[in-house]
Amino acid sequence: MEIKFSFDGNAFLIVLDDNAAAREFYAMLPLEFEMSDYVGKEKIAHLDKRLSLENMQGYEPQIGDFFYFSPWGNIGIFYEKQPPYTGLIKLGVIKEPKEELIKRLRDKKQNFKAIIEKHSK
């Protein structure tokens, strides 16, 4: 499953993992979010509906990961390294163009609107 993440006239592809939370998120699309910065390492947005934690385990986050943080009900993208944290679930990873999106997210200081929608190949 692939999704398109768009903001400020730019579109990027994210490949979703094959897990219950990612499938639930995919079924909710399209969605529009107000993204904000968190600790200078990730862009996050609140998700109105909680995602499934079925068979989910923690993981070692990487730059470019698309994630769900279950304690707060947030989705986000890491643009800097973060340590593992209980309740952090990987939903997918930026496919293309990864370096360009990471740079744009890092440089974006204000909140911004983002649209996430299903992408068909």
TrEMBL record:
<protein>
    <recommendedName>
        <fullName>Cyclophilin-like domain-containing protein</fullName>
    </recommendedName>
</protein>
<dbReference type="InterPro" id="IPR029000">
    <property type="entry name" value="Cyclophilin-like_dom_sf"/>
</dbReference>
<dbReference type="Pfam" id="PF18050">
    <property type="entry name" value="Cyclophil_like2"/>
</dbReference>
<feature type="domain" description="Cyclophilin-like">
    <location>
        <begin position="6"/>
        <end position="117"/>
    </location>
</feature>
<dbReference type="InterPro" id="IPR041183">
    <property type="entry name" value="Cyclophilin-like"/>
</dbReference>
